[in-house]
Structure formats: C-alpha cells, structure tokens
Specification:
The chain has 444 residues and is an alpha/beta fold. The protein has four domains: 77 residues, GMP Synthetase, Chain A, domain 3 (2-Layer Sandwich), CATH 3.30.300.180; 182 residues, Rossmann fold (3-Layer(aba) Sandwich), CATH 3.40.50.300; 72 residues, Helicase, Ruva Protein, domain 3; 87 residues, DnaA protein, C-terminal DNA-binding domain (Chromosomal Replication Initiator Protein Dnaa, Chain: A, Orthogonal Bundle). The strands form three sheets. It has a five-stranded parallel sheet, sandwiched between helices. Helix 2 packs across helix 13, helix 11 packs across helix 12 and helix 12 runs parallel beside helix 14.
Length: 444
C-alpha cells in the first residue's frame, strides 16, 4: 500500500518541478512504511535529507495524500545501505582482526561501458577473460592507455562478470598503491602471512595502475612471487597501466618480462561519435535532458578524457538542480571553460553559421533549412551547408539533421556544388574569412 500511495504522490509532485530536479531529488526516495496517516520515506544520506527538507519539503507535504485524498504526515529515515561498493573477498583471516577489503564497484559493468573503435579490442579481450578466467592465453591481460579512458572500468567489469557467472569465487581488485601500502603494513605489524594469503589464494587478481610499482624494489619482489604462484596455478591476472609494459622504466626486467608474456591491449582516446555516445549515456543515467547540439559542443572540446566528459554532465546536473539554472549553450560553455581554462576555443555552431548566411543573403533560416526547391534558396542552402562543413566540427550526419533531416549524401552533394561553382572565385573565400572573424557582417 505504501508503495502505491507514494507512486501516486510522486506523479503529483512531478507536475510541480523541472524533470532534472525531480530525477535528482525525488526519484531516489524510497517508501518504507505507512502507519495510519504517516508515510515513512527513506533517503540515501543525511545531506540529501537536509537539502530536501530546506528546498522541497513544502511541495512534498502539499502533494502527500492517502488513497482517500487525506493529507499524510511525512517522516524520513536515512539509508544505512552501502549501495556503490561491495566486498567480494573472503580472506580467511581471523574475523576478530581487521580484514583487508577488496572493493568492486557494482555499477562498472560491461553493459555500461561504451564501446567504440578506440576500445573495441580491449573490451573484447576483457570479456573473454571474464568468461573464462585463467583458461586462455590472455594471462596476464594488460590493459594500457592514458588517464580517464576506461581501464579501471574494465577491471571492475571483469570482476563483476567473473563473480556473477560463478567462474571465480575469490576476486581481489586493488590499486598498486594499496598493494604497496598493505605490504608495508604487513612488515610493520608482522602479518606477512595474512598479506600473502590474501593475494595468493585468489582466483582472479586485478591490479590497477601497475606503473606505480616503479622504484619500489621490495614491493616488486613481493609482487613477482605473487604473480609466479598465481600464474603456475592458472589463476587469472589482469593489470592496467598508463603505458605499454615494455616501455616502463623503473621496473625489474624479470617483472616486465612476466607482464609481456600474455596479451597487452591499448585503449585510445575516443573518437567524436563515441564521445557523443558516452555523454548521452551518462546524461540518461543522471536523468539529465541535454539537447543534441549541446552534447556535440561538449564532445567537440573534451577529446581525451572520459572522466572529464562525465564530470561535465555532473556539473551541469548540479547547476540545474541546485541553482535552478537553465541548461543552455551559455551554461555549457561556462562549464567547459571551468575544465579547460584558456585551452578552450569555442568553434562556431551550425546555427551560428546558418544565421549569418541568412542575414547576409536575406533569406529566412526556416527557408534555408526547409524543403523549398526555389533556385535562389537552394543556392543559399548549399552555401550554408558548405560553410558548416568548413567552419564547424560537426559530422556530415549532424549537419544534414540540422538542415531538415537530410542525409550525409545530400550534404556531400551540396558541398560539391559549391566547390564546382565557386572553384575559381574568391567570393566564398572572403565570405568564410569574414564569418570566421567573430561572425562580423560580410559583403557577399
């Protein structure tokens, strides 16, 4: 009953607030119980409750009614559940002593990893290992690439998948820094036996950022013996690094040799289409409505780091839900500037270019992007399409969509027509130069 009543109340609340606010602050609330005229709701944490109480209490109270239309008193409880991180390792250590924990993020799975040409091979190798740990020639599997490209995501995905399909009962996922710290602590506290048991009794060992073993001779020695023992038992080892193992400096040669004995796969920065897909996925997960042209704007400027792409979505969500700001081009540009600083150079948008062509040729925008086949309008449309291709970073498909849903072959044809007609003329060149100078008024 309490779930049905809360669902009805939620539907009523939804009509009174923007969708981003609703998805951020109302959707996570869970109904717990209904006691006469009192509805008990669970919120994720104390901060969430305090913000809800100070900003949306009146709205919730006003909409909270029972199935007879009578007002309900709302009481809140704070969840004690740890939702994002779960422990999957039974170390076998005395339960009265502090137990080293292995954390796997349950949200980082293969189905939430956006695949593109830049990471296709790495993802396929990771899935193969997750399905049959230790049973292939991919042992060890080393995934390498720059910062924020998804290496850690794949490690967590392997761990989650291997546990879910029952292929590995004991999984250890640690960073190289945590491995080093635990090793140092085991020496200081004389608990080396417990440390060794944790890492050498596992079915699947995943170590993130092995480059940080550089220069740590004793840690490398310890990991070398751990590696050998697991490998001889056909236990799967997966490592991530910022560079190809053979190019690492500061690692023992015999350790590098072990790293190179399996399969090394790289992840490259995502291409434009993959960046767009990542942004759309992250926005959907966050309940954030982003216009496609704004997604393209972000993807155009953030080219090498997926974490920055995701952080921009979170920043936009915060500005929208916490400060009530409209998510428009100005806000997106502001957030991008915060991330890139002086590196940001804003390119022209398709709309910028078409507006300027409209002004100069005295042809309404709706006719330029519309279906009209009048000769002068077609000529202006072709010119606008050509300039969009030359002056913006949008794909041919995106340009076609802006011009009334035309396909990329139409865009190619339009550009060819302009190049053919104006091949020996300087008018278009001058026009482009003038638009490039901050879209100043041109003479054409």
């Amino acid at each position: 009953m309490h779930k049905t009543i809360w669902q009805t109340d939620k539907n009523a609340i939804k009509t009174d607030m923007p969708s981003q606010v609703f998805n951020t602050w109302i959707t996570p609330i869970k109904p717990v119980a209904l006691n006469e005229n009192e509805l008990i709701l669970e919120v994720p944490n104390q901060f969430f409750y305090e913000w809800l109480d100070s900003h949306y209490k009146d709205t919730i109270d006003r909409k909270a009614i029972n199935n007879k239309g009578r007002p309900l008193n709302i009481k809140y409880t704070v969840s004690t559940e740890k939702k994002r991180i779960i422990n999957h390792i039974d170390t076998g250590i005395d339960k009265h002593k502090p137990t080293p924990l292995t954390f796997i993020n349950k949200n980082q799975r293969f189905n939430s990893f956006i695949e593109g040409p830049n990471n296709q091979f790495a993802r396929a190798a990771a899935m193969s290992v997750a399905k049959n740990p230790g049973a292939s020639h991919y042992n060890p599997l080393v995934i390498y690439g720059g910062v924020g490209l998804g290496k850690t995501h794949l490690l967590h995905a392997i761990g989650n998948n291997a546990l879910a399909n029952g292929k590995s009962k004991k999984v250890v996922l640690e960073t190289s820094e945590r491995f080093t710290q635990e090793f140092i602590n085991s020496i200081q506290k004389n608990t080396n036996g417990e440390f060794t048991k944790k890492y050498r009794s596992t079915d699947l060992l995943l170590i993130d950022d092995i480059q940080f073993f550089k220069g740590k001779e004793q840690t490398q020695e310890q990991f070398f013996h751990t590696f050998n023992e697991l490998h001889q038992l056909n236990k799967q080892i997966v490592l991530s690094a910022d560079t190809y193992p053979g190019d690492m400096l500061g690692l023992q040669e015999r350790l590098v040799s072990r790293f190179q004995s399996g399969l090394s796969v790289d992840i490259q920065p995502p291409d434009f289409e993959t960046r767009v897909a990542i942004l759309l996925e992250k926005a959907q997960q966050s309940g954030l409505e982003l216009q496609y042209n704004l997604v393209e704007l972000i993807a155009t400027h953030i080219k090498t780091n997926i974490r920055v792409l995701e952080s921009i979505v979170i920043r936009l969500l915060a500005n929208s839900s916490l400060h009530g700001k409209e998510i428009n081009r100005d806000l997106v540009e502001e957030v991008i500037r915060e991330k890139l600083g002086k590196e940001m150079i804003l390119e022209l948008s398709i709309e910028d270019v078409v507006k300027k062509v409209s002004e100069i040729r005295n042809v309404p925008m709706k006719l330029i992007v519309g279906p009209s086949r009048r000769k002068e309008i077609v000529k202006t449309r072709h010119l606008a399409i050509y300039l969009c291709r030359e002056l913006t970073n949008n794909t041919l498909t995106s340009i076609g969509l802006f011009f009334g849903g035309r396909d990329h072959t139409t865009v190619i044809h339009a550009c060819a027509q302009v190049e053919k007609i104006y091949k020996k003329k300087t008018a278009v060149t001058k026009f482009i130069d003038q638009i490039s100078r901050d879209l100043s008024v041109a003479n054409f």
